[in-house]
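go over this chain:
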Amino acid sequence: TEGQVHRRRGAVGMGSGQVVQHRAAAGHVAVLALLLPLCCRAAPERLRYAIPEETGSGSVVGPLARDLGLRPADLPTRQLRLLSGSRRQLKYFAVSADTGHLYVSERLDREEMCGDSASCSVTFEAMVQNPLNVFKVDVDIQDINDNSPVFSEPTLELEIGELILPGARFPLEMAQDPDVGSNSQLSYQLTENPFFRLDVKETPNGKKQPELVLEAALDREKQSSFQMVLTAQDGGSPARSGTVQIRINVTDANDNAPVFSKGTYETRVRENVPTGSLVLQVRATDADAGSNGRVSYSFSNVPDAVRAVFSIDSDSGDIHNVGILDFEERKEYTFGVAARDGGGLTGHSQVHIEITDENDNAPQITTLLVTDTIPEDSPPGTMVALVNVHDADSGENGKVWCELEGESPLSIVASSGSSYKVVTVSALDSERASEHNVTVVASDRGSPSLSSRAALSLSVSDVNDNAPVFEEAAYSAYVSENNAAGAAVLRVRARDADAGANGRVSYWLVGGSAGEAAAAAAPYVSVEARSGTLYAQRSFDYEQCREFAVEVRAQDGGSPSRSSTATVRVFVLDLNDNAPHVLWPTAATPGSPGSSSVVSGPFEVVPRSAEAGYLVSKVVAVDADSGRNAWLSYELVQATEPALFRVALHSGEVRTARAVSERDAARQRLVVAVKDHGQPALSATATLHVVLAESLQEALPALSERAAGAESPSDLQFYLVLALALLCALFVLSVALAVAARLRRA
């Protein structure tokens, strides 16, 4: 047993490949592989093996994994398997998941698989994944001499007239051997006989036609019959043979055998012609008269496959088709026909019918591999499907081109052999299109062209490639002070274009719920993780904090997660919750809205010579609120002489409204109301005491009268101020006297 492995790699020149195996007598198969050097371990694009027919199931064809450059340790991850558009092709072979060897899974019978075709091969594809590669594999089925030559009948009857001259030839039936090549090359031998010898003629199709040649004149009275054995032997090793008994009856008058007009009849018939169509007419003539010249036609040792397709009219020699002629099943038929006269003599001829192809087969699309779902971040060029397209026709009728129908980021490219890959050509986006439906259209180049369609559906799975996006980059919220703790402040919203958990958004305060709280802002608000609603943690006070800002982070549920942030600025709105506060002449006691607080104040001395507009004093007040709530107005609400004084509405200055007269009381008491512009308005009052006198000494009696009736802490304060003024005056007087005395002494 000898064998050889070759590899073919196109233009790279890796060689052609063939594994030749011969079956030994015991039926064992041995494979000898002469591999390329280890430095040339690149996987071939096409592998070719050869194996003899009748190889038993389980026999190894070749080390497929090793020839593809795969190590045994790589097999689980590379997932080596066989693919084919025809299940009939795959039923004969399988690949071992453990060793990667290609082995026979069903007995191989070349004659059953390929008939009388000169070559016989099974073609399929080997696919490996991670990364994906597809390789063409051809297995040639080599013929072995497992069939013996066979004659149609065990006995051949001939009738030869005794008057036929020596040298006459009588064609004999050819034996049939379904093998091919040298295994079907037949040679013939005839048992020795002094009256007959065997001659062999070669027909135009290369076959040998045995003929019986008359060597000596026959005499029916001496010998009326002859018996011989014709042996057909093929050229196989060891050779096989078959025999037929030849019985010759010597007759009185029939001295001419039928003769065909042609040694070989040839014709062409298109496939799919209607049943019963005339295919060919053969014609033979016989020079005899009467019944000896009447010729009948029949098939000469043809297999059942021919009889199932053709019939011959015994009288006319017309050959019709009785079955369907299919170019894809068989491209030609060669068989023998015989013409027999009434006297028993026969003539033989050959018929060769060639079937021409018609474009009667649409391309067949077989999905070998399909990915139902693909991540949207798959790079361009990712394969999503592998299809095999096969057209049983030949020539232009069998040439196929493929395209995709439907708008999608997919394209179809040719792979090895008749396989095509559907790949991505651009980026996928599940947010724009979560599913792509395309149709693979395979069309042949026949006229008219035939086509087939196969629908493919691809789902694009979502990956977390989108971060949440806030509806606004910055939010502003306005909250009135003195709000209730827990009140909703604002709702932020972020949208994530992803789906499922990748698009589920939760909210956190930056440095807050998800980490450390911001020192100033976090105590004021909190955020609900699901809804994004911000709630006040406590009541706000405009006078303490007028505005603050927090950052809210929106985070999705992907892994790894994606997030974005937005700034929320909260403005506290002022309410009129602070009454005016009097700084001068004395601080007023705050009153409730609509009420006043009475405050006693110091006194002011106004000379009686004061004219109208004389500045008596100024009431000074402030309001902790802002805006309109802090706008203050002043009003004189009570006075001893209301017509004597007036108060400026906005400045709070107290001036005389007219000139002071002698009739005016020496002691005047003024009550000034300070009111803000809030809703409702808050107010405070200030009390101012005015003494009408030209000098302090003149004012003392009035002050004394006031002191006598003083009953309140305000009067006591008045006396203390007065005492302080007197002390100051005495001190100034003492200093003046001392200076005057020193000057006088000098």
In short: The chain has six domains: 46-142, 155-251, 259-356, 364-461, 469-573, 578-587+602-702. The longest strand covers residues 241-251. The two ends are 159 Å apart (CA to CA). Residues 244 and 659 are 169 Å apart (CA to CA).
